[in-house]
Amino acid sequence: MTRILVVEDEVNIAMALEDDLKKEGYEVEIVRDGDTACCRAREAAFDLILLDVMLPRKDGFDVCRDLRRARLQTPILMLTAKTQEAEKVLGFELGADDYVTKPYSPRELRARIKALLRRAAGDHPEVYRFGDVEVDFLRYEVRRSGQAIEITPTEFKLLAAFVRHPGRVLTRDQLLDEVWGHGVFVTDRVVDNQITNLRKKIEPVPAKPRYLFNVRGVGYRFDG
Q1: N or C: which end of the chain has fewer CB within 10 A?
Q2: Same domain membership, residue 115 and residue 28
């Protein structure tokens, strides 16, 4: 049975989420503060974390940051009453996989959850190798010549998107949807900057890419 960790301090909202998700056939565990969320997410195996931003003891952004630093790959769907684009961008930069703003439609939330679970169950190997690079999906880690390298959550998701579609040209809009999510305003320049940073970490000579190519006027292609 698919297990979901719901991190929500408002009792009524938590109970409503639990009832709705159980009707969908999910096993649900509720925790009500950020510290407990970090502990439970590391201790037990969950298929998805539904994470509120405004929490006692440690907010959702800090929880997300800590879990990604601990190499936890579990999909994270953030819930918040905040509507500023900057808040959404921050969540994605810290490693969140999707974002829903309160008040939300239960139907939309269920659809987002199913989409994340499908994506997490995608047909990619546990470790993908090209050149001297290894992308470890279980450890949420990238290694070169056997040594782990520093990589941000956004860079990892960007690399994962390319690995899932080798040889295929991905437009900037496709990358925005897959890495930053729908409804988040990020400029093309941000995408290009992230590609530049990623090349510095995976290419033998970043100025002369061997794996990650620019297809002029269209987007980028990964040949790995």
Answers
A1: N
A2: yes
